[in-house]
């Protein structure tokens, strides 16, 4: 891995929190992701399943974590199953985790080679009454490919039909949404790398540059700072492209007078950052661009004030909508009649601001979190209002990553990334 090793105490704490929620005499199993094929002998780069990483720190394919806190023998309480490394693998792929190295990473003493998983599981299941299976129940999840986890669940149901079944996901949704201090430090590092990329780009942007050239500048800066790269597919959207919410082609020329919407974020140690900034191609915002930009910035600042313990996500968005409505009236994009006659299910402001304002962030860019439950301290949320005006040839979105505090305003992990019009213009023209 490119990143510095994470203190195993984080993963020991995470497992302790999970086991505290398990029912008596139950076992939980977590599988790594597959390495997905492309064609011939080509594969996509490996990306670890975030749940097994959260609980173990193991960042390697063909790995399984088994947790059985009530096991009658100590060596069965926590087990890592890993692909056995050997000299051939070390020569062709690089050495995989040894048993000793796995203990350093995860703090798990019992490490068994993967070929003995079924034999060990058979013993475990004679003692256990319940198994926790790990299904993906994220509200945005759309899954068309059968995962390693799904194959295991199917196999387990066929071979152990008499055991009770519980779901690990509701536990993990709550645990992963509230970050430990070590996790906040890792997200901060991802944000710091994103800042370096943004400052690099401010010195690079000029008329006629291509969107993909800007993407390449970010990638260069991310990789040289121990990131694997982008936490999600980057959006480099100039001119009217910014009005396509998930524009990812990044293949157009940036023209003088236009704005560029940069929705990018570096990952670090599998943790995400998520930033959006606006850059004027010519180094200066027009008066109208500045007017709309500052309106969006005011909405962001007011929305941030509501990110406090106890806030309900659904009501939060209703309140942000009221603030946005006021700004759109001031910009002349809607009038009082539009508001008076609006459809409550699709308010007038939605014509120009059609997406949500905030989502959980952490190991996943759209991280785990139960949206019907109140916000808590140490949750990390994005704040990303936008105004999109195709008729005027530009759209504006501004986004920061915020940590909810026990008291007071949320802490901005992107506080050092330029955001004010004057600062952006000054840096671009220095």
Automatic annotation (TrEMBL):
State its cofactor. Answer: Mn(2+)
Cited Pfam families? AMP_N (PF05195), Peptidase_M24 (PF00557)
One annotated GO molecular function is: aminopeptidase activity
What are the UniProt keywords, alphabetically? Answer: Aminopeptidase, Hydrolase, Manganese, Metal-binding, Protease
Q: Can you tell which superkingdom this protein's organism belongs to?
A: Bacteria
Q: Which residues form a coiled coil?
A: none
User: Which reactions is this enzyme annotated as catalysing?
Assistant: Release of any N-terminal amino acid, including proline, that is linked to proline, even from a dipeptide or tripeptide
Domain called Aminopeptidase P N-terminal: residue spans: 6-142
EC code:
3.4.11.9
What's this protein's name? Xaa-Pro aminopeptidase
What organism does this protein naturally occur in?
Flavobacterium chungnamense
